[in-house]
Specification:
Number of helices: 4
Distance between the termini: 53 Å
Structural class: mainly beta
Domain POTRA: 6-88
CATH architecture of the largest domain: Beta Barrel
Main location: plastid
CATH superfamily of the largest domain: membrane protein fhac: a member of the omp85/tpsb transporter family
CATH topology of the largest domain: Porin
Largest sheet: 17 strands, antiparallel
CATH class of the largest domain: Mainly Beta
Number of strands: 22
Shape: globular
Helix content: under 10%
Protein name: POTRA domain-containing protein
Number of domains: 2
InterPro entries: Bac_surfAg_D15, BamA/TamA_POTRA, D15-like, POTRA
Strand content: over 45%
Keywords: Membrane, Plastid, Plastid outer membrane
Length: 424
């Protein structure tokens, strides 16, 4: 009998101990595993399809090892499939450090410490619970996120994510520092729910509803409503603003032998459920295209957005910095109601895991800086547009590429930039 061409009679799951390899009791519900498989009872067994099923199960993030063993089902001419599964440790605590690009001065500039607890297989249904706390020189974030990657009973692979977050981030991107080197921070309490699903192999979509309460504070934690230049810090004139946002996002991704493409379209609408809640429309789009020609890789990116309606100044689009226009400090080009940023870079192998990079960026607020309430960019004499160029290196790491860059801008200034992961 050709097992690879036989009809599937039955699929059995066997959990194996991580250390001994002996059969054990698993934590994952069998139906959670079985619904991931494209191989079903009554179908002709395909080795290629089986390998893809193994990759899918490993991609869930809760399996350490998966193998499919086909066995003849007696004299029926069919095949039974034995699915050997080794589960990963479900959860635990972690601690670490990183870098925040929002802080540009100080002896501990940008350093962030973190502490987190995560459980990747809640109730044995592959549901994810993450609780994390990050603390930097000025900024801090406490976040709880609960995600169901595939809602039970849904045949469209819809996921659900519930989030609660309390954050304090530097307001320097738009408003700069207060006198005597004290720091202005923007505090946000955010809660929301989002639903996502794939529409095709390359397209996916997300919709959700998000509540946010935000306001500015000085370094002592006192609420403030105006900055040093008397620009307003809230849209309502109160110590804080409240908004209920309806979100809609579409994502296109494509990967080929010669490069990759990405397109993200995002729209947020403020819903004035209560008279004092803000109402504005914010649209944002970004695209990226990669090409490989011989040993060289070319990457081109373009992003832009616009806000219409009554919005707080700290929500303006900030231009300049490591993930925007390099050669400038964070937000130093400008902050506007509209913006566009374009970038092009060429990378090439140097030695080992290190690549060299040449790059150029350009960004503009499209003349919209004065339309931001209080014109915080104009008060700080930000140019509103600018470009930068330079060289750098990329080093592969488990966290993603480590980026060290040295950039010049059109105002004859130069600056080092360090980042982790791909540019936004």
């Amino acid at each position: 009998m050709q097992v690879s061409e036989a009809e599937v009679n039955n699929i059995t799951i066997r959990f194996l101990d991580r250390k001994t390899g002996e059969p054990t009791t698993g934590k994952t519900r069998p139906e959670t595993i079985l619904r991931q498989l494209t191989t079903k009872k009554g179908q002709v067994y395909s080795l290629l399809q089986g390998r893809r099923d193994v990759e899918t199960l490993l991609a869930m993030g809760i399996m350490e090892d998966v193998s499919i063993i086909p066995q003849p089902a007696g004299d029926t001419g069919k095949v039974d499939l034995l699915l050997n599964v080794v589960e990963r440790v479900s959860g635990g605590f972690s601690a670490g450090g990183g870098i925040s690009s929002g802080i540009t001065s100080g002896p501990l500039s940008g350093l962030v410490g973190s502490f987190a607890y995560s459980h990747r297989n809640v109730f044995g249904r592959n549901q994810k619970l993450n609780m994390s706390w990050e603390r930097g020189q000025v900024d801090s974030i406490f976040r709880i996120n609960y995600t169901d990657p595939w809602i039970e009973g849904d045949d469209k692979r819809t996921s659900r994510s519930i989030m609660v977050q309390n954050s304090r981030t530097p307001g320097t991107l738009v408003h700069g520092n207060l006198p005597q080197n004290s720091n202005l921070t923007v505090g946000r309490v955010t809660a929301g729910i989002e639903f996502s699903r794939p529409y095709s192999p390359k397209w996916s979509g997300t919709t959700g509803i998000i509540y946010q309460r935000a306001g500015a504070r000085d370094e002592r934690g006192n609420p403030i409503i105006k900055d040093f230049f008397s620009s307003p810090l809230t849209a309502s004139g109160n110590a804080h603003d409240e908004v209920l946002l309806a979100k809609l996002e579409a994502v296109y991704t494509d990967s080929g032998d010669s490069g990759s493409s990405m397109l993200v379209l995002n729209v947020e609408q403020g819903l004035p459920v209560l008279p004092e809640w803000l109402s504005f429309t914010r649209g944002n789009a970004r695209t990226r295209k990669g090409l490989e020609i011989g040993p060289f890789r070319f990457l081109f990116s373009l992003s832009g957005g616009h806000v219409r309606g009554n919005f707080p100044p700290h929500e303006a689009f900030a231009i300049g910095g490591t993930n925007s226009v390099r050669g400038y400090e964070e937000g130093a080009v400008g902050s506007g109601r509209s913006y566009v940023v374009g970038s092009g870079e060429t990378s090439f192998p140097m030695f080992g895991a290190i690549d060299g990079v040449l790059f150029a960026d350009y960004g503009s607020d499209l003349g919209s800086g004065p339309t931001v309430p209080g014109d915080p960019a104009g008060a700080r004499l930000k140019p509103g547009s600018g470009y930068g160029y330079g060289v750098g290196i990329r080093v592969d790491s488990p966290l993603g590429p480590l980026r060290l860059e040295y950039a010049f801008n059109d105002r004859q200034a130069r600056r080092f930039h360090f980042g982790v992961g791909h540019r936004n």
